[in-house]
Write a structure and sequence with these properties.
It catalyses: (6S)-5-formyl-5,6,7,8-tetrahydrofolate + ATP = (6R)-5,10-methenyltetrahydrofolate + ADP + phosphate. The protein is an alpha/beta fold and about 200 residues long. The chain has one domain: NagB/RpiA/CoA transferase-like (Rossmann fold), CATH 3.40.50.10420. It has four helices and 13 strands. Helix 2 (about 25-45) packs parallel to helix 3 (about 65-70). The chain is globular.
Length: about 200
């Protein structure tokens, strides 16, 4: 059974990855601009002063302008750094693009003073990557399990929103025991509350 679910997820991830690669530069830029506005609104509506986010790759919904602007507004932004043991370290973001290097999986990650995995326990809001999210709030990542492990281990989890494109909000996703739900999603056109935050 789990094998079937894993095969289903793998096929769906491949389809979603391909769909993202077909977007034009202009579509990506427009999406990033719209997303920055939505993310700003979410941060303001929650009164968040400390958040975690991620540095988007070229095919992901663009978060970099949002991160820079949040830092300039005085919001503390933690960015993830992957570790070989499956955990995430964190670095406080700056508004300088020179502070970015290639991480463990070739993904953009911040350089700077590394804080341990528990640093994220202090944030008011988590913004995380995803391949897709279904309408019950179930999130499917890219298969490495970093964010499932992080969210699952937090004693007091803040609201967690996945940042995705509109077409990646699906009716249903295959799920496994370790998969963690999210509070909602932020897309270029909408912010959806899907499940209540856990306390």
């Amino acid at each position: 059974m789990a094998n079937d679910v894993e095969h289903e997820k793998r096929a769906l991830r491949a389809e979603l990855r391909e769909r993202r690669q077909l977007l034009s530069d202009a579509q990506r830029e427009d999406a990033a601009t719209a997303l920055t506005r939505r993310l700003d609104e979410l941060v303001d509506s929650l009164g968040a002063r400390s958040i975690s986010c991620f540095l988007s790759t070229t095919t992901e919904p663009g978060t970099r302008e949002f991160v820079r602007a949040a830092v300039r507004r005085g919001i503390r932004v933690l960015l993830p750094v992957t570790r070989s043991d499956g955990l995430l370290d964190w670095v406080v973001a700056t508004d300088d693009d020179d502070d970015i290097a290639e991480g463990l999986f070739g993904l953009p990650e911040p350089t700077g003073e590394v804080l341990g995995p528990i640093a994220v326990n202090d944030v008011d809001l988590m913004l995380i990557p995803a391949a897709a999210v279904d309408r019950s709030g179930m999130r499917m990542g890219w298969g490495r399990g970093y964010f499932d492990k992080t969210i699952g281990s937090m004693q007091k989890c803040p609201p967690v929103y996945a940042v995705i494109y509109d077409s990646e909000v699906l009716d249903f996703l295959p799920r496994e025991v370790h998969d963690q739900p999210v509070t909602g999603v932020v897309t270029p056109t909408q912010t959806l509350l899907l499940s209540p935050p856990r306390r």
